[in-house]
Amino acid sequence: CHYVQLLTDGITNKLVLCSNTYQDGSEEHLLVRIYGHKTDLLIDREAEIRNIRLLHTFDLSPTLYATFENGLIYEYIPGNTLSAEDVTRPEIYKLVAVRMAKMHKVQDSNTQKPRASLWLKLQQFVDLIPDEFQDQNKNKRYAEMKFSKSQLLQEIKQIREAVSDFVMPVVFAHNDLLLGNIIYNKTKNEVFFIDFEYACYNYQPFDIGNHFAEFAGVNDVDYSRYPKKELQLDWLRTYLMEYKGKSTVSDHEIEVLYVQVNKFALAAHLFWYSWALIQAAHSHIDFDFIQYASIRLQEYFNRKTAFLNMELPTGLL
After folding, report:
1. What is the reported pTM?
2. Which of the chain's termini has less CB crowding within 10 Å, N or C?
3. Which InterPro entries does the record match to this protein (predicted)?
4. DSSP code of 196?
5. CA–CA separation, 40 vs 20, rounded Å?
6. In this structure, is residue 20 part of a structural domain?
């Protein structure tokens, strides 16, 4: 390995790019991912490796070269991670919609009747939130949120009830499709997804709603970037055409999914709020996880009433 570069995008793990240039001028690159401290509390690493191998058989993930005690080595995908501007451009977000639909059609032959992981995983996260932090500054800022675990459980219960009657498929979902996990290769005009740590079977509208919430970014969060209805409907039409394998889908189908997706975006805020508090207790990465938790919680309450008041369209599909 002639050249090593520490990439700083991730807020869960450390990522190292290794490059080699041969005498004939050709180059070879690979990525070494070193797991973040205590992230095994949050992530089933064996399941992640199974996911990468499964998705690779459908040409939906990079090649996995090797695994080791606290990390893995995989293929480098050339391109750039999406910016907040990129993801609003139809020629790019339609590629993302199609790619997600392809992933959602993946079936694991080892799973007979897939079950959505959302509520179980969220409960696990809530259980892992510390009652107090060793760092007094973190403790003080957490207390200032005035949001207890019992209040969090109440909110989760309310969202769970709000989506309990939805008719929706359980799909093989990425569950963490933030902008940094989408690579755009301009030359090939393709997008690729990376980092399948949280991938598992889940509710279809959760994966989409979670992605829409990530339009806001991570380091410089701006929720005014949450996609407007017009963009969402166009995205969802593209997605459903690929997912259903049809050249047309009805406005009714799109409106149903639109309502489902936005309600599940609320669940995504509670999911990553809980995740951020666990990271605040354990992570060695230089990132303000308490602030991030606070921002997710604030946005949850900002959107809660409007999203819960959305009603599914009546009439037949």
Report:
1. 0.91
2. C
3. Kinase-like_dom_sf
4. -
5. 31
6. no
